[in-house]
Amino acid sequence: MKRFLAFILIVGLVVGSIALLVVQPQKVAEKGSASVAWLADNNQANSDGFKRVFSPSEIVFPRDLGAHEDYQTEWWYYTGNLETSTGHPFGFQLTIFRRGLTPSIQPVSTDNRSDWRTNQVYFAHFTISDIADKAFYPAERFSRGAAGLAGAQAVPYRVWLQDWSFTEIAPGQVQLAAKTDQVALDLVVKETLPPILQGDRGYSAKSSEPGNASYYYSIVHQETTGKVTVKGETFEVTGLTWKDHEYSTSSLSADDVGWDWFSLQLDNDTSLMLYLLRRKDGTIESVSSGSFITADGTVQPLNNTDWQLEVLDTWKSPTSKAQYPAKWRLAIPKLALNLEGQPLMPNQELNLSTTYWEGAVRFKGTQAGKPVQAQGYVEMTGYTSTLANVL
Q1: What phi and psi, each to the nearest 5 degrees, are found at residue 340?
Q2: Could you give the CA distance from residue 300 to residue 217 in angstroms, rounded to a whole number?
Q3: Which of 3, 81, 6 is nearest to 361 (CA)?
Q4: Into how many domains does the chain fold?
Q5: DSSP 93-104
Q6: pLDDT reported for residue 41
Q7: pLDDT surpasses 70 at 11
Q8: Which domain covers residue 60, as residue numbers?
Q9: 294 vs 103, 189, 193, 256, CA distance in Å?
Q10: Integer Cα distance of 4 and 350 in angstroms
Q11: CA pair distance 298, 316, nearest whole angstrom
Q12: 271 three-class SS
């Protein structure tokens, strides 16, 4: 759910400049390259001709690991919590987005054909959270989906934007790789549970309006090994990674101001996803929902009346001046689950083409009276501006 919403917001800000990639040389932005004021005036992309999501449809693997260019928006998203053998913790996010500018490319003559010609554009976000040093490293990139610069395929599974990539190296094992001039990531993630379908058999509603929905699956528990490099120092790490993949053609209500999304991996081998889509009047969209995944991969859907989430503290960004929730109390009575949690460090705010908070968190509490702890990621958007201001 949340990656769909984040994609819509980011595309609203950057699609104007990304579109230039179809006819201009490659553009790479490591931080804050887009002019938001200009892009806000150039953010309307025509969705006519793209498929929309109205009902559940069979999701098949490995076919649906790849790109779905009949739909306008798509992303592949990985986050994880990592640790060295001495207990040095890290968090990471690596997400690659695809945007269709048109449903199809009109045939052109052989004389006009070019390897650079495409109707697909890609961009990516990459972050490292160095928890011990309380340092956060965000970066982004943009590229056309042509000339081998960026793309996605199902068999063998590979999604890439230059040297930021997800590459299948064995059944159920994927290498994640990305680097900037300050940090680098080289991990192997191994799924211990098969993909799970979010929502209604993979159909995830985004509002009550027909067609405002996506197809959405997750791989919630992936054992992770590899290396993190920060400013020239390389660390051997292990941990857990979460994957989301979502695709759609959709829009959001002008009454929606932002969202809070949670992915948690509990130490009893269960997992939890929740999202809350916030409205101007302070209420939560009725389609806000979630899922609880048992240790054997059984999915229990959750609706927005199944939990209570209380904000216990906030943090104000020194950069954007946005005030974000920074401590939570979560109760899900039907699961006998009670948790309290907070970020591993407060400043995990991305100030790139758009501003939002996404970072590593820890929770602890009880389930059915037994102690539990959880690690995961939280994303919070709309705390610096409303969706209506940028869409």
Answers
A1: -125, 140
A2: 14
A3: 81
A4: 1
A5: EEEEEEEESSSS
A6: 32
A7: no
A8: 2-390
A9: 39, 20, 10, 31
A10: 17
A11: 38
A12: strand
